[in-house]
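testing teh design pipeline on a random one, pls ignore if ur not involved
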């Protein structure tokens, strides 16, 4: 596949991974998820009853199966912004669109997470450098599948993109890992090759955590997530992503592993889905067409991706 084809499939895969997890988003009981999942945990209709009496919180009462979470919508804002700015990621344009989407009277009708809430408050007083909240969670990387569509992205641009929603030392340290993983996948590495390569170059505690994720003898991602954490902070989310990258051999198996692991599976979805979509493409071992068809507004999402591909790769 050409790089543009890998990026396009990656972006579709990012959306599908997010939407597929929505029904079980923030359910922290893997046994409950497995009991309800049936043949597959994907695209379950959001239902408050699934969460009653179990660890987690039901936050998507306004959503239906196939909708994007706030992470997927943030990715869409990034793609729309880049289409409008000739394929380059422009921080100010994204900030304006982010506020227009998630702020008062915006198109988003759903849960507002801590990072988004803090960012909106800062943008409301025109605090832009940085505009992010003091938050170390996955909103920091939700836009990166789009940002890394660019063939060249500097370390400074990556840092600035993280700080849009996440002005936090932990986010600043972990966010570039997601960017590097996506760059490797878009440039043609398999998910395992990308995870091995990025983890081998990471320093300190981050490197140790990522190499453990890649090398551990624990092959079950659900059990591994129990060990390292399945919540939103990047020090928990990124090792789970790397564990899946090192072991899943198809897009379908990667996304199902992610959902069954529980916790912030939607938050892990965009980066994970982009890596596996880029590697495996559409259909076959890649993103199933029947899953794409289940994503609400999939035709518009695909058209926006195509528009971006004409400008950025």
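output:
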């Amino acid at each position: 596949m050409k790089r543009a084809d890998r990026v396009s499939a990656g972006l579709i895969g990012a959306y599908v991974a997010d939407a597929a997890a929505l029904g079980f988003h923030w359910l922290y009981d893997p046994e409950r998820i497995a009991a309800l999942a049936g043949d597959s945990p994907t695209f379950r209709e959001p239902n408050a009853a699934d969460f009653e009496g179990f660890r987690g919180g039901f936050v998507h009462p306004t959503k239906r199966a196939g909708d994007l979470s706030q992470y997927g919508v943030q990715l869409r804002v990034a793609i729309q912004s880049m289409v409008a700015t000739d394929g380059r990621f422009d921080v100010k344009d994204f900030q304006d669109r982010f506020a227009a989407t998630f702020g008062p009277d915006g198109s988003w009708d759903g849960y507002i997470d801590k990072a988004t809430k803090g960012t909106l408050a800062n943008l409301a007083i025109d605090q832009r450098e940085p505009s992010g909240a003091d938050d170390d969670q996955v909103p920091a990387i939700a836009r990166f599948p789009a940002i890394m569509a660019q063939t060249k992205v500097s370390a400074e641009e990556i840092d600035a993109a993280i700080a849009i929603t996440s002005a936090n030392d932990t986010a600043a340290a972990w966010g570039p890992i997601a960017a590097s993983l996506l760059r490797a996948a878009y440039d043609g590495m398999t998910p395992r090759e990308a995870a091995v390569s990025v983890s081998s170059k990471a320093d300190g505690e981050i490197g140790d955590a990522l190499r453990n994720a890649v090398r551990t003898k624990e092959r079950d991602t659900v059990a591994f997530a129990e060990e390292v954490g399945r919540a939103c902070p990047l020090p928990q989310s990124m090792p789970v992503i790397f564990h899946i990258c090192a072991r899943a051999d198809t897009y379908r198996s990667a996304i199902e592993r992610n959902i069954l692991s529980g916790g912030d599976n939607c938050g892990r979805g965009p980066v994970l889905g982009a890596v596996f979509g880029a590697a495996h493409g559409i259909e076959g071992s890649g993103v199933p067409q029947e899953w794409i068809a289940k994503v609400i507004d999939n035709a518009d999402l695909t058209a926006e991706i195509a528009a971006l591909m004409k400008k950025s790769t």
